[in-house]
Specification:
Rossmann fold; 42% helix; alpha/beta; Arc Repressor Mutant, subunit A; five-stranded parallel beta sheet; 22% strand
Length: 225
């Protein structure tokens, strides 16, 4: 079995049973576990390519799982199942180390789109993107600034790559949502501001120059201060 297509779902069975059928038909190998402790043990044994966690099932326990994996250096895509599509939920996903979210009730198209996004990345050319002292390696998916490696989640990496492939160009919030998240702008959500704030915290350590500039009323641009 190809571990690159193995998906572990730690959630209640009503949601998972439908998702499993759709994932199998799309060529993936889903595994379900409804107990959080057993699910984490199964994760360690199976080494899946993607992990789907149910926020309500775990209450606060998913924080420990996500952060433990990130602290161990794991870059596995983690999706969080949530009941509401709000800025608060998106920020929560980001803060605990999850890459994205799935909204209940079950949405087949959303699940399979995320599976393709995170498990079947487009083949990248073997090259690096550079902007001043910031280097983004498209082959190893590493980010380096001043010889220091910066650990980014997949979504943060894609956001930074979009800025670096469009350096000096002012990008609107709508363009960022469409090209990084893959869906149209949905009103007054400040999810982009949240992600950019976290990205800045990671790439602008110890008084380093700000590279992502805010263009008030328009969007953002990657350029010198």
């Amino acid at each position: 079995m190809n571990n690159n297509y193995r998906v572990l779902l730690i959630t209640e069975e009503n949601f998972a049973q439908t998702a499993i059928i759709d994932l199998q038909q799309a060529g993936y190998f889903p595994v379900i576990e409804s107990d959080v402790t057993l699910g984490f043990k199964k994760f360690q044994a199976l080494e899946p390519a993607m992990l789907i966690l149910d926020k309500l099932l775990f209450a606060k326990e998913e924080i420990n799982i996500c952060r433990q994996l990130r602290n161990q250096g794991s870059r596995i895509p983690i999706l969080l199942l949530v009941d509401e599509e709000t800025v608060k939920e998106r920020v929560f996903c980001l803060e605990i180390g999850a890459d994205d979210y799935l909204l209940k009730p079950y949405n087949k198209e959303r699940l399979l789109n995320l599976a393709r996004l995170y498990l079947e990345p487009a083949e990248e050319p073997k090259e690096q993107l550079r902007f001043q002292d910031l280097v983004l390696d498209l082959t190893t998916r590493q980010v380096i600034r001043n010889d220091k490696t910066i650990d980014l989640t997949m979504k943060e990496f894609e956001l930074l790559k979009y800025f670096m492939t469009n350096s000096a160009k002012v990008l609107t919030r709508e363009e960022i949502l469409e090209n990084v998240w893959g869906y149209d702008y949905r009103g007054a959500s400040n999810v982009i501001e949240v992600y950019i704030r976290y990205l800045r915290l990671k790439i602008e350590l110890k008084g380093q120059k700000r590279l992502i500039q805010t263009v008030r009323g328009v969007g953002y641009v990657l350029k010198e201060p």
